[in-house]
Amino acid sequence: MEISLIALAVLLLLAFLGLPLGFAMILVGVVGFAIVRNPEGALAMSTQQIVDLSMNFEFTVLPLFILMGAFVHRANLSQELYDAANSWFGHRRGGLAMATVVACGGFATISGSSLATAATMTKVAMPPMRRYGYDDRLATGTIAAGGTLGILIPPSVPMVIYGILTETDIGKLFIAGIVPGILMILLYNSSINAVTWFRPEWGPRAPRIPLRARWPYLARVWGVLALFVLVIGGIYAGIFTPTEAASIGAFGGMMFVLWRRQLSWRTLTDSLVEAGRTTGVIFTVGFGALIFSNFINIAGLPRDLVQMINAAQLSPIGVILLICLIYIVLGCLLDSLAMILLTVPVFFPIVVSLGLDPVWFGIVVIIVVEIGLITPPIGLNVFVVQSMVDNVTLGQIFQGISPFFFASVVGLLLIIYFPIIALWLPNLMR
Amino acid sequence: MSNHSGGGDASGSAFAARWTHRVLTALVSIVMFSMMILTTADVAGRALFSKPIKGSFEIVTFMLAILIFCALPLISWDEKHIKVNLFDHWVPAPILRALNVLWAIVMTVVMAGITWRMWIQGNLMAAGQHVTGFLEWPIAPIVYVMFVLSGLTTIIFAVLVWQKLFQRSTPPAEAQQISAENPGVD
């Protein structure tokens, strides 16, 4: 116990002093393992981890989903999504903001990244909201919060990473994200409703579009829908494994760009290189995370934590609430990937020992990570939005975020107390 | 692409660095593209003609290893590894500089260790004549490829140490920025 706690402290110190995370985890993991067992064992274990992780067929799902995201990011689909959502919601009080959330949800069905979703939606949603005189705080807060849907609604890169770390079925994780994703859209839109109820001048109505004119807008987004149905539907129906779905998704994404006449040699190579490099970055920290978690396992940290929990007679829900609290605090300091890699190896064995569902816990982790993406001082989504909008301070965006923060916490609690929200769909799978 | 090719380098080494960067970038895109095409063709072949491409999953698995280890020197050279830079603004500049040198040294050592172990692993697999389950392709060559690219990454880290120690040029601010251009991770 002591050695793993010391190791954890050293790891955090090294990371906070700027040693890249993957290398910090490899170093601490190898040294720790060598102290608990022996140096030769430590080296053999870590070599094995690196080779196994690099040559595991299951994990090819990661570069392929990242590639899909890289393609659709360049296909500029966001304008159509926004127009479609707008035709249905724009005339309501705060309607443009609601449309933004819905369009974010739509973009999330083909993107596995929150930052990409926030960045893309900033470009299309910010100008109209400004034109109609929306308050900057509401407008930017909406986009930053809506962007987090990118990782809750499948496909989702963090879910793949959670799946790899915990050997949880990636297909089930994806399917489990759908209903919570819809729930979050509803909660976000309720908070927009609440904000504009108190401050109607923050979100003026746009002109109503007649019902008949709305369908053509919806028809223009059929491609997004088709890709989602093909990829996620294929996983749900058991036609594709996640890896196969990812390759279809990547190929479909490329066809999308081609069909929209935006496929140049440059777009193609940029997407490929971006996906390859991101894969390299993620696997480097992945090596570290696996080596480190091997070390804390043989050092007995998970076992000791479970004993402590039993001794303290905490209820499973109490433990989960405690874990979430730790996550929300950590989310203020770490970015999402770092958080998942550092904490899941420690918390996951506890969750399993309590008999809780790994898929459900995955969704809980994703939602707390989402919250981390919008909480100060390190809220990456907020940084992205701020970097793309003129004359808006970080403080204003964080102010605009606060209702969405509460909405996320409500969503989190609902899913903790009613796991069926997440587990209903995956339980229907074969 | 390379941010470090400027400065006081001898033109020969700058040339080598630029070309290494180009070749690796090209390799990454070729491998990535082939992975996508091969898996898609496999699924399509199985679904449409009930003829999967035999052993494609083993080829794709090899590609994954090559992809990761080709990307490794690139992201190391451009200093794109994931790090927490929460306190960078608070730490005095000279200390930050010293820390950066120290971390570059640590990464050189870790990477040298990985390189050494890949060599041993490759030898083990060659001696044990390990082959893949279906195509019965030998695994050792791939591990040797991982060894070579790890070695290249070690050299790059060593060069970074040298640059940070003896060159005045500050690292590109662009490398630290959180930009919307490469948002694949979160």
Name the features.
heterodimer, A: 430 residues, mainly alpha, 23 helices, globular, B: 186 residues, 4 helices, 0% strand, disordered N terminus, disordered C terminus
Helix proportion of chain A? over 70%
SS elements, strand count of chain A = 0
The end-to-end span of chain B amounts to 24 Å
Main pleated sheet of chain A: none
Net shape of chain B? elongated
Question: What fraction strand of chain B?
Answer: under 5%
Which chains have the largest interface? Answer: A-B, 79 and 64 residues
Oligomer: heterodimer
Report the biggest beta sheet of chain B as strand number plus sense, adding barrel if it closes: none
Helical proportion of chain B, percent range: 55-70%
- Number of structural domains of chain A: 1
Average pLDDT value of chain A?
A: 92
- The proportion of strand residues of chain A reads under 5%
Shape of chain A: globular
Verbal overview:
The complex is a heterodimer of chains A (430) and B (186). By secondary structure, chain A is mainly alpha-helical. Helix content of chain A is 79%, strand content 0%. Chain A has one domain (58-427). The longest helix of chain B is centred in the first third of the chain and has 39 residues, at 11-49. Chain B has one domain (11-181). In chain B, α3 (93-127) runs antiparallel to α4. Chain B is an all-alpha fold and 186 residues long.
List the helices and strands and how they pair.
The complex is a heterodimer of chains A (430) and B (186).
Chain A: H1 2-16, H2 21-36, H3 39-54, H4 61-74, H5 78-89, H6 95-108, H7 114-131, H8 136-147, H9 149-152, H10 157-166, H11 170-176, H12 178-198, H13 211-219, H14 222-236, H15 242-259, H16 265-298, H17 301-312, H18 316-331, H19 336-353, H20 358-373, H21 380-388, H22 394-417, H23 420-428
Chain B: H1 11-49, H2 56-77, H3 93-127, H4 140-166
Helix pairs in contact in B: 1-2, 2-4, 3-4
